[in-house]
Amino acid sequence: MRERFNILVVDDNVNNRLTLRALLGRLPGCGVIEAASGAACLLLTVEQEVHLILLDVQMPEMDGFETALHLQMTERTRNIPIVFVTATLKAEEFSKRGYGLGAVDYLAKPLDDNLLLNRVRLYKSLHEREAALEKHALDLQASNEQLQEALDRLRMTQDKLVQSEKLAALSPIVAAVAHELNTPIGNCMTVASTLDADIAEMEQILNSGQPLKRSQLLEHLGRARTASQLMLRGMFRTAELVSNFKQVAVDHASSQRRTFDLKDIVSGVVILMNTTLRKTPYKIAVNIPGGLWMDSYPGPLDQILSNLIGNSVLHGFDGRSEGLITLEAYAEGENVRLIYRDDGNGMTDEVKQHVFDPFFTTRLGKGGSGLGMSICYNLVTGLLGGTIEAADGVPCGAVFNIVLACKAPQVTPA
């Protein structure tokens, strides 16, 4: 429903007011309010919403000029359009004074009906446009607030999805490492048990008082040395797995910035990923020189590599009896170019076009979330300050060209 356009007619002559009321009554959507003096005019503008004032210049006690001056001094009434109406003060000096007091028009009596109505229509139209613009501005502000809330929710959701993908990337590594740890730990337990039984046998011989032959002692020492070497080998293997897993797990779980050699980070991820590929025909080859130092975030880089390797195994090598993943890197100015390639099934043009789209997956309904590559793209282009592109391998397979800033951009706090 449109707001009523209220016109305040201020004139000490009642007949003039009645004439203007009748004339203005022809305009739809307009309401007429009357005031017989400047003081009454000021009071009405406080009590009611007024959109236009037709103000007589000559009035007793407070004339139109003084009334306009008071209206200009008040915030509520300062922007109400004033049209001066006069029968005698028609000289240019009076009209200039009226315009100087903020009037939008200065009309002389007798008034031309059509002229007055057209002017009122104009001011009514301007008021409606201003009201529409104000409403539009309020609507835009409300929309912006809603969009900001939606953006905040989206960021929270994205953070949760990133964390979920981090855990998903770690899950197969955790299972593989646990399986790998069982082997050396189990061997150590078996050797330790055998060594314990051997020691108990030697104690029994010594406690019986029987003479201990040199050959028996040498045989026992040989078995003990072999057992200790086997246990040390198993412990070293266990410590290596635990150390690599701890570093990758810490990097996956956080986005802490630090200085690192790219070869060390990639090698650590590959060692652990190889535990998941040990019983498969798939291999990973690393051709990255040492000394490619980066001031960046190893955690996201670990996650990107884990996702790419997982995708090669799941998609690129699907139905194949063997597969090779190759990782290469070299310095390129202030950047490092990391090339990931596999010799698998490759990607169609459609897949390449949408591979970084959120929720895009070629395994719909088979457990694929379609978020892994989208998160990789966001991590590379955002936190790591680089670019990532998908291409075809030669003669087959898939290639991802990743350019990373040696010094990642500073993250601006939200």
From TrEMBL:
<dbReference type="InterPro" id="IPR004358">
    <property type="entry name" value="Sig_transdc_His_kin-like_C"/>
</dbReference>
<keyword id="KW-0175">Coiled coil</keyword>
<dbReference type="InterPro" id="IPR036097">
    <property type="entry name" value="HisK_dim/P_sf"/>
</dbReference>
<protein>
    <recommendedName>
        <fullName>histidine kinase</fullName>
        <ecNumber>2.7.13.3</ecNumber>
    </recommendedName>
</protein>
<dbReference type="InterPro" id="IPR011006">
    <property type="entry name" value="CheY-like_superfamily"/>
</dbReference>
<dbReference type="InterPro" id="IPR005467">
    <property type="entry name" value="His_kinase_dom"/>
</dbReference>
<dbReference type="Pfam" id="PF02518">
    <property type="entry name" value="HATPase_c"/>
</dbReference>
<keyword id="KW-0597">Phosphoprotein</keyword>
<feature type="domain" description="Response regulatory">
    <location>
        <begin position="6"/>
        <end position="124"/>
    </location>
</feature>
<dbReference type="InterPro" id="IPR036890">
    <property type="entry name" value="HATPase_C_sf"/>
</dbReference>
<feature type="coiled-coil region">
    <location>
        <begin position="130"/>
        <end position="167"/>
    </location>
</feature>
<dbReference type="InterPro" id="IPR003594">
    <property type="entry name" value="HATPase_dom"/>
</dbReference>
<dbReference type="Pfam" id="PF00072">
    <property type="entry name" value="Response_reg"/>
</dbReference>
<dbReference type="GO" id="GO:0000155">
    <property type="term" value="F:phosphorelay sensor kinase activity"/>
</dbReference>
<dbReference type="InterPro" id="IPR001789">
    <property type="entry name" value="Sig_transdc_resp-reg_receiver"/>
</dbReference>
<feature type="modified residue" description="4-aspartylphosphate">
    <location>
        <position position="56"/>
    </location>
</feature>
<feature type="domain" description="Histidine kinase">
    <location>
        <begin position="176"/>
        <end position="408"/>
    </location>
</feature>
